[in-house]
Amino acid sequence: MNASTPVAPSSARATQSVRAGYALFILTLINLVNYLDRYIIAVALPEIQKDFGINDAQSGLLGTVFIIVFMLASPLGGFLGDRIPRRLLVAGGVILWSLATGASGLASSFTALLLARAVIGIGEAGYGAVAPSIISDLYPREQRTRMLSYFYIAIPVGSAMGYGLGGWLTQTYSWHAAFFAGGVPGLVLGTMAFFMPEPQRGAMDGPDAAVKLPFMEGLKGLGRNMAFWAITAGYTLMTFSIGGLAFWMPTYLVRERHLWLEHPGRVGLVFGAITAVAGLTGTVAGGWLGDKMDRKRPGGGLWLSGIGLMLAAPCMYLAVNLKDTTLTFAAIGVAQFLIFLNSGPINAAIVNCVPPAFRAFAMGLNVLCIHMLGDAISPTLIGQIADMASLHTAIAINAVPVLLGGLALLLGAKLFREASPHVQQG
């Protein structure tokens, strides 16, 4: 074939599919390592408390400091992601947070560990805000919920690996070794991300999509976007609850339920396995059902997310009030399945309700909001309530934000549907 011979459409589509699949694969693996690194600390926490002599409120700061830095840096990451090659932000961010994870294992004081957790937040901010916008430019609207669900499958699997690997390494060797092991995969994946394809912004949104937008004009438009803010409110309430729950549940099961006191790392393995199964099935189901319901009506996937959270709330309450251990773990599994249903639909709704030129910043602003009012404060608040009352009481009341989050997402679905003609024009 000479230079003047056009490429067959089927060949071009196949090439695009391979490029998109490679980028999605790399981004998903990075997201898996992202959550693995986050949750190693949850199962290592009892040993860290022993070594540094810190109480529950201080321990909660290890989660809060990471989230504060991550959320504050995310809008900047989004701003840059709308203006420079996004693969550079992804690669640089992954390498930075992986180095900081390894450095966590070298910490010889509580202050040093806090500093390492803060640097992890900076690295993750360079990646978290731009990855969904890359995926939205690789796949058309009718496939985005499903493809984003594949990406978010890494959350339960990575979290489970963090619980499992962190628990095993902490029990077998030390919490230092757990952090060392967690930092290695990200260095490899960060290098691979430099060679990831960079899709054109708005490539899958039609010729009328806004791919260039002055920042202040985009900011004003986002401020008037009620669907975006309702989705963000629901996401924030959910994040508050599950962020604190994920941080404290292994410690609760050991301390107050007295499970495997001689082998506390086993709690991480069991809790991680439940998270992996429930999260994986919930995320896949949410992606498939979300795409199906979105084709029936705009905002259908969001409606699914809202119902899922409202059903998850009583399961979360039961999980800490059922006396039988098997029933407790069953309630945890059902609650996680219902929560993870929304991973694809809620993030697809965010990227679909804003113009392509402003997606990375919108995701970054969403990250700021859901963490500033969500899991940036919940680990410390739960720790404070636990110090004043009990960890059981602190965790039980976390069902309320999930219920309210479900109601907010149902409102978001209504607003999204009302704004759908505008949304479709990008």
From TrEMBL:
The name this protein goes by in its record: MFS transporter
One term of GO molecular function: transmembrane transporter activity
Gene Ontology CC: one annotated term: membrane
Stored PANTHER family: PROTEIN SPINSTER (PTHR23505:SF79), SPINSTER (PTHR23505)
Residues spanning the membrane: 20-41, 61-81, 88-108, 114-135, 147-169, 175-195, 226-249, 269-289, 301-320, 326-344, 394-416
InterPro entries: MFS, MFS_dom, MFS_spinster-like, MFS_trans_sf
Keywords: Membrane, Transmembrane, Transmembrane helix, Transport
Superkingdom: Bacteria
Organism of provenance: Corallococcus aberystwythensis
Membrane topology qualifier: Multi-pass membrane protein
Pfam families referenced in this protein's UniProt entry, alphabetically: MFS_1 (PF07690)
Domain Major facilitator superfamily (MFS) profile: 23-417
Subcellular localization, as worded in the UniProt entry: Membrane
